Amino acid sequence: MKDPKKIVIDKKLLVPFILITSLFALWGFANDITNPMVAAFKTVMEISNAKAAMVQFAFYGGYATMAIPAALFVKRFSYKKGILVGLSLYAIGALLFIPAAQYEIFGFFLVSLYILTFGLAFLETTANPYILSMGSEETATQRLNLAQSFNPMGSILGMFVASQVILSALDSDKRDAAGGLIFNTLNAAEKAAVRTHDLGVIRNPYVILGLFVIAMIVVIAVSKMPKRDNADHTIRAIDSFKRLTKNIKYREGVIAQVFYVGAQIMCWTFIIQYADNLGIPKAQAQNYNIVAMAIFISSRLISTFLMKYMNARFLLTLFAVGGMLTTTGVILIQGMPGLYLLVATSAFMSLMFPTIYGIALEGLKDDATLGAAGLVMAIVGGALMPPLQGMIIDQGTIGFLPAVNFSFILPFICFVAIAIYGYRTLKVYPEFSA
Predict the structure, then answer these.
(1) I need a labelling partner for 245 at 20 to 30 A (CA). Which of 51, 71, 78, 99 fits?
(2) CB-count burial class (<10 Å; 0-12, 13-18, 19+) for 301
(3) Which residue ranges form the domains of the chain, and what is each CATH number?
(4) pLDDT tens digit string along 136-155?
(5) How far apart (Å, rounded) are the C-alpha atoms in residues 60 and 345?
(6) Alpha carbon of 216 to those of 45, 90, 175, 221, 345: distances in Å?
(7) Which residues pair with 175 in a beta bridge?
């Protein structure tokens, strides 16, 4: 008989596991249909890279705002109710794209994304610890990596929709024979007509997404979800918070997660700008993002398998060093080789989020729900760092390098921080190592 501690998913929990895992794909879709919108809004709204990157500030800022309230809600009520609230906020934010497109106000789109990610904060705060609880702590990190493998599947679908449904249909991205944007040569009235058309193109997939999420609300509401929350509800949140702030491994894990999410969002958001600097249209450039995601998925599955035989902390450190090497090439090597290295960086990012998450939550027990919220709040790295990278890109050139190349110094720094965390978890506090 197989040791229960070695079982990743118990057969009795397979259906709930599948339902919750589907949520990982759902927020992956939202993440990666939104990343290319930075480039789309930059052109159609005629704004700078830094201002366009406020899309990411709004999107990932919603996580920082709502993660703690979501954790307190789940702690007070249940995982299922937290999921239903998250899906409701998700649908509301997506459907607000209707008035945002009608009024053609960039700030309205930002508010819509902000509310949408209130829902994602609820979902991630709930789903991640729920998956961890579906079995022994010994297989928790492996189980979360398996569930997280479905996140990039949703992401790649979001990228495909962004490329084939949105970016390819944007009139503002049409180019002349010399490769220049025709939109920049139009008069005010012509630009207004193009803007109305393109904002409608951007709106439609979000509206369809909102309707799909409403259908998911119905499915989850009628499904029987086992109660896996074994926390002591007499424990005060303030006591949990005090213990978490004193836990060095957890505290450094939150910091490492900030750097990881920042690196991921910068690499995936500005791959279009990197390609644009090489004269590649947005829709075609998005195909490189799709390839990057396919590499990400493949590497996630491979790394999940490797964790059966190798220490997760060692793999985290090794992959962070790999990310440092590829981003060094992105900075220093111009032309298509640099773009290929940027795409290859996704292979090394693949295991980072769930592995940091699992390591940081090891041994937290009754503090895990609030601890999970802190790690979801760390997604704020995706809000803070892209505008900084956008400001660098807006400089045009820095020294002998195109500014878009130099801007990837920020992801490089992020990978350095992750490598340090991986090494410290391996050597300084390895008591929970697999």
Answers:
(1) 78
(2) middle
(3) 4-225+236-427 (1.20.1250.20)
(4) 667 776 777 778 778 878 88
(5) 21
(6) 33, 11, 40, 8, 33
(7) 181
